[in-house]
Design a protein that fits this description.
This protein is of the alpha/beta class and 269 residues long. It has 10 helices and 9 strands. The protein starts with 13 loop residues before the first strand and ends with a helix. Bound molecules: SN-glycerol-3-phosphate and calcium ion. Keywords: Signal.
Length: 269
């Protein structure tokens, strides 16, 4: 590889550790953030939902079943939905043993705990508003916690934080409430539809399966709400070949379960 990049050649995409370094540690937990930082990955992605009593927690699935021992601790509470448990109940759960006995006792973090850990290990944060249709008003609540924890100051909103969602309404709401925050729409709207998102989304984050050089160019041709070309972070790309293909298309970021493998492949390209 050449240390001098040709003029006009795409920049190396940033790498984002999907759900934390989720092949190295249990997803969406504090140890997963630590592992991402230890691997030298600059960004972590996580998923935010809300408990029955209004606490924001970092967990991917609508149900606690897959990534905690909720079925053992609360055998009569099927289908173990996050929204049906209090924060105190969720704090009792083991979110690590399903992954490995080495992580027994790991907890489902609150958003505050997650932000503090990301700050401590200097990680940038791609924060997903997950299932917002289940949690009316969650965007305002997330922004309140971000503000309380110092993540809305200039240093954080300039290149350290992106809020994303599959819900265009949720992304629009985040932008309207806190215009300084960079936002991303997950998914791959038709190119003809892209301009309607440019008013409130800085990025379009598509699945790898929807990715092409033409699509990336179509996004880059638009100006986002902060007056800069819109960007593309693609997911979930775990092997070197696909990472190099995506980089060749000009993506700005790669969201990966194998950020170490992808980072090495991009460095060697
Ligand atoms: O960041 C992209 C990715 O997280 C979207 O899918 O289901 O893993 O939240 P999912
Ligand atoms: Ca996610």
């Amino acid at each position: 590889s050449s240390p001098v990049r040709a003029a006009g050649a795409p920049q190396r995409p940033v790498v984002v550790a999907h759900r934390g370094a989720c092949t190295h540690a249990p997803e969406n937990t504090l140890p997963a953030v630590d592992r991402a930082a230890a691997l030298g990955v600059g960004w972590v992605e996580n998923d935010v939902q809300r408990t029955k009593d209004g606490e924001l927690v970092v967990v991917h699935d609508e149900s606690l079943s897959r990534t905690t021992n909720a079925e053992q601790v609360f055998p009569h509470r099927a289908p173990w939905k996050v929204k049906d448990f209090t924060a105190a109940e969720i704090a009792r759960l083991d979110a690590g043993s399903w992954f490995s006995p080495a992580y027994a006792g790991t907890r489902v973090p609150t958003l505050r705990q997650y932000l503090r850990r990301a700050e401590r290990v200097h990680e940038r944060l791609l924060l997903e508003v997950k299932n917002p249709e289940l949690y009316p008003g969650i965007e305002r609540q997330i922004l309140k916690v971000l503000g309380d924890e110092g993540w809305l100051d200039r240093r954080h909103v300039t290149g350290r934080l992106i809020v994303q969602s599959f819900s265009a309404g949720s992304v629009r709401t985040v932008h309207a409430l806190e215009p300084a925050v960079e936002t991303a729409l997950l998914g791959s709207p038709a190119t003809a539809q892209l301009p309607r998102y440019a008013g409130f989304a800085d990025l379009i984050n598509p699945s790898y399966t929807a990715l092409s050089a033409a699509y990336v160019s179509a996004v880059h041709a638009l100006t986002g709400p902060h007056g800069k070309p819109m960007k593309v972070f693609a997911w979930t790309i775990d092997d070197a070949s696909r990472a190099r293909t995506a980089a060749g298309y000009g993506v700005d970021g790669i969201i990966s379960d194998a950020p170490d493998t992808v980072g090495t492949a991009l460095d060697a390209a």
